[in-house]
Amino acid sequence: MTRSEIIIDLNADLGEGVGDDEAMIGVVTSANVACGFHAGDPHELLATCRAAAAAGVRIGAQVSYPDREGFGRRFMDIEPARLTADIIYQIGALQAIARSVGADVEYVKPHGALYNSIVAHENQADAVIDAIVELGVDLPLMGLPGSLSLRRAECRGVRVIAEAFADRGYRPDGTLVPRSEQGAVLTDTDEIARRVVSMVEHHEIRAVDGTVMRIEAESVCLHGDTPGAVEHARAVRNALAAAGIGLAAR
C-alpha cells in the first residue's frame, strides 16, 4: 500500500465539559460523545452533536459506568444484566439527541475503566456486546486491538474498529499503562505526532519498557482532556498530511 492509499480516522472524547470541544471538532473525523453517565448533560450533548453534525464529523456513543464522581475511571463490579441495560440506555439517549440535529450514532466506544475492563473481563465484555446486539442496529464496537471484547464481538457478528492512542503509554502486552503509573500520559507534542505517523505508516509503537510492538488500528484517539490537547491534535493532523496519509471516518 502506498502512502496515498493509507486512510486513518482521528477520534476524540467530547461532550465531557472539559477541554475545547469546538477546536477539536475542527480537527478530528470522529467524536466519541459522552452519554451523561461519566460526564456531560443533555444541553451539552446536544450542542456537541450539533457541532459535529455541522462539521461532518461522525458521532459515536461514549458509554460508561455510572460514575460521575470518578469521571468513569474507576472499575465497577456491576451485574452484567444491569450493565447491558445501562449501555442500551446511554446509546438510546444519545441517538435521540443526534437525530434531533439530523445525525446518527454510528459506533460505540466504552469510556475509561469500562474500556479497559472489557479488554479481558468476560462478563462485562459480553454485557457491552449484548447491548449492541439487543438494539438490533449496525453499530461497530471501537476498542483495543486484540482485546477480548473485539474478538467476542466479531464472533457475534458485531463489526469492530481497532483503535490506537496518540497520547497514552502502552505496556509490552499491548494494554494501556494505568493513569496512576508513570508514563501513562504523553504530553510532548512532537513526540505524539511522530508516534502517530509511525503507528499508521509502519504499524509500530514503542512500549514504556522500550519494546517495539506491532499495532493495527483503523482509528487513533486524541484525548480532549490531555494538557495541550488541541495543539497535539493539530500537530498530529499536520504530520499525517505531510506523510501523505488521508483522514476519514472508517
TrEMBL record:
Quickly give the catalysed reaction.
5-oxo-L-proline + ATP + 2 H2O = L-glutamate + ADP + phosphate + H(+)
Superkingdom to which the source organism belongs: Bacteria
This protein's assembly is summarised as: Forms a complex composed of PxpA, PxpB and PxpC.
The lineage is: Bacteria, Bacillati, Actinomycetota, Actinomycetes, Mycobacteriales
Which UniProt keywords are given for this protein, alphabetically ordered?
ATP-binding, Hydrolase, Nucleotide-binding
Protein name in UniProt: 5-oxoprolinase subunit A
State a single Gene Ontology molecular function.
5-oxoprolinase (ATP-hydrolyzing) activity
Enzyme category, top tier: hydrolase
